[in-house]
Design goal:
The chain is mainly α. It is built from twelve helices and four strands. The chain is 45% helix and 4% strand.
């Protein structure tokens, strides 16, 4: 990562807490690896307040219920023109109900109630950070950093009121006389460049905090195919490092696209969670299959231009990709 200009990374909390040696200030200060990459750790308390499925803010009973959508609720004949072309019920984004409670009939969504909850919880979040910093600051040489990273899809998707919560939180921080300021990791590094040297521990945001979501008995068979395709992509980049034929260059670039699409961590994640498993397996099979067909076509100097054009249209991600990055 250092070689490619990455200055810092954000790890799960235990990526810092279990670093070697143990960081003096835990997740409240960054560490720097022996190779020179800086690591910040996710703050446990602020993450729990937003992410927890038990007492996190998005579970407030006044918030919009994500899982009650008219695509599934409304009479089928009425909703059919507005759902999938094949007639399958899908989310339309129109949702009439609030979370209401657990194991009870859903009540209608009230926008003002939802805003009231968001405003109250943004104040609670700010007060908690204020108290947290008051307790930490006297124990540290530099001001503590409370790192609050969240998946972007939480805001407005799973948690419909999330963007409003953020808006109110930022307003409160700006106008209230709190004891902290908003800052990016880059700004913090610039202001406080001295930090403890440690080797971060392996970590992820996946279940149980390590790699088992992407490597377990349900999906381990995929990795040998990904490794094989990766080796073959490097091989192609070396063999055709000086290639001038436009058709071969197109095929080589498409090989790189197919490999990247096959390597998407989403497919392994979906297989582990048991949702849309057939779809995920098909995507892996399709991308590895297309890559392999192009690989042998290039090796045998016999490229089917119609096939290439077809998959270029289907898998048109990264239009500026250059296969030589694998050289």
């Amino acid at each position: 990562m250092k070689e490619f200009g990455i200055e810092y990374i954000i790890t799960e909390s235990h990526g810092i807490l279990y670093a070697d040696p143990a960081p003096v200030y835990g997740t409240f200060a960054p560490i720097v690896s022996p190779q020179g990459v800086i690591a910040f750790g996710r703050d446990i308390e602020s993450s729990r307040q937003v992410w927890s499925s038990i007492n996190g803010y998005p579970g407030d009973f006044n918030y919009r219920e994500f899982y009650r959508d008219i695509g599934y609720d409304i009479d089928y004949d009425y909703i059919k023109p507005y759902i999938a072309a094949n007639g399958a019920r899908v989310h339309t984004g129109i949702k009439y109900y609030r979370i209401t409670g657990k194991d009870c009939p859903k009540d209608y969504y009230d926008v003002q109630w939802a805003k009231d909850s968001a405003e109250k919880q943004s104040g609670h979040f700010m007060d908690c950070r204020t108290q947290q910093i008051n307790e930490l600051a006297p124990l540290m040489n530099n001001p503590p950093i409370i790192l609050c990273p969240y998946d972007a899809e939480l805001y407005g998707h799973w948690w419909y009121e999330g963007p409003y919560w953020l808006y109110i939180l930022f307003k409160k921080i700006y106008y209230d006389n709190c004891n902290f300021k908003l800052i990016t990791p880059s700004e913090y590094i610039d202001r406080y460049p001295e930090m403890q040297q440690c080797s971060p521990c392996r970590s992820s945001w996946g279940a149980n905090g390590y790699s088992e979501v992407w490597l377990n008995q349900t999906n381990d068979y995929v990795h040998r195919h990904l490794h094989k395709a990766g080796d073959r992509m490097v091989e192609l980049a070396h063999i055709f490092s000086q290639e001038q034929d436009p058709l071969k260059i197109r095929a080589l670039n498409q090989c790189a696209r197919e490999l990247l699409l096959a390597q998407s961590s989403d497919w392994l994640f979906i297989i582990t969670n048991g949702t849309m498993v057939d779809y995920a397996k098909k995507r892996i099979k399709d991308h590895i299959g297309r890559f392999t067909k192009l690989y042998f076509a290039l090796k045998n100097n016999h490229i089917n231009e119609d096939f290439l054009a077809d998959i270029e249209a289907k898998d048109c991600v990264f239009p500026e990709i250059d296969y030589k990055i694998y050289w």
